[in-house]
């Protein structure tokens, strides 16, 4: 696996967002996919979004769910919302109110108001016993952090590789650049502390 520096991660993500905003979905997909495969949660969310909305790729809810799941387990609230919607509607995954409830709950806990509204909707389709089980499952859930391998070259540059551990309508906007910059800063700070 090719090592990518934090500067390159930021540059490629910015190029992906810029390309997306001008409607160049092929370039955006290429940039996001490279980062998503390295475990970048924001890029994984964007790849899921592009599969769900048929942007540069054929619409494929199964692949969208796969990428949303990868981002969701790392704590990406928008991916959790969209994954909950997929379980609620049975798009790309089997319909499962309990799993929809889980993803809506953890997304709502991060302040996602749409997830909170969808949680109320999905609870109306569940029995009290199912709701209780789903709440217990959500209470036990914790995000998994991407495992990072950090290396320094002989000229002092630092490189990282990342591997991810394993609205009912998806949002049409990719993960903003500012959110991505905050994630890189947080990741860099936690890597320095380790």
> Can you tell me the overall shape?
globular
User: Ends: how far apart?
Assistant: 22 Å
Query: What percent of residues are in strands?
Result: 5-15%
| Total number of helices | 9
Total domains = 1
Q: Kindly report the average pLDDT value.
A: 81
Read across the widest sheet, the strand sequence of neighbours is 1-2
What name goes with the CATH superfamily? Tetratricopeptide repeat domain
**Helix-strand pattern:** HHHHHHHHEEH
CATH class: Mainly Alpha
Per CATH, which architecture? Alpha Horseshoe
Portion of residues in helices? 55-70%
How many extended strands? 2
Largest sheet: 2 strands, antiparallel
Radius of gyration: 17 Å
- Low-confidence spans: pLDDT under 50, at least 5 residues? 147-155, 157-173
Brief summary of the model shown:
The chain is mostly helical and 194 residues long. 62% of the residues lie in helices and 6% in strands.
